[in-house]
């Protein structure tokens, strides 16, 4: 039996892994995808369940850049199959002003308005008792 040959291996078949697998396949590469879970969206993955949050609001700029590139690939897949696969939405990130996570996000979205705890509760009534000194930012996922 001949040992199979692959041009590339993709480890992790969440949204980003599937997107890059598609990209390499469309470029003519023979791809093998490796996933530790037997079911897609299995408990313990970042893609648990039937819905996903696609965000480009990580504190790490490189990760955001990678997610933006992967999102472009998903949009190409949508064009190819004639179906919307990802719905755009917005994400609220909030917390204490000293949070390194928030500082990382705010530095990447300098034009987006920062809102305080009172405004967070007013705009999003599901959040109760947000500390007055907390701040947040709403960013689009696309």
Largest sheet report: 3 strands, antiparallel
Give the radius of gyration: 19 Å
Helix and strand pattern: EHEHEHEHE
Average pLDDT score:
85
Low-confidence stretches: none
Overall strand count: 5
Number of helices: 4
What portion of the residues fall into strands of 2 or more residues? Answer: 15-25%
Q: Specify the helix fraction band.
A: 25-40%
Structural class of the secondary structure composition?
alpha+beta
Brief characterization of the structure:
With 142 residues, the protein is α+β, with helices and mostly antiparallel strands. The protein contains four helices and five strands. The radius of gyration is 19 Å and the shape is elongated.
Describe the structure.
With 142 residues, the chain is of the alpha+beta class. It contains four helices and five strands; from the N terminus they run βαβαβαβαβ. It has helices at residues 15-26, 61-81, 100-108, 117-123, and strands spanning 8-11, 31-34, 90-95, 114-116, 135-140. The protein has a three-stranded antiparallel sheet with strand order 3-5-4. A two-stranded parallel ribbon has the order 1-2. Strand 1 (8-11), helix 1 (15-26) and strand 2 (31-34) form a beta-alpha-beta unit.
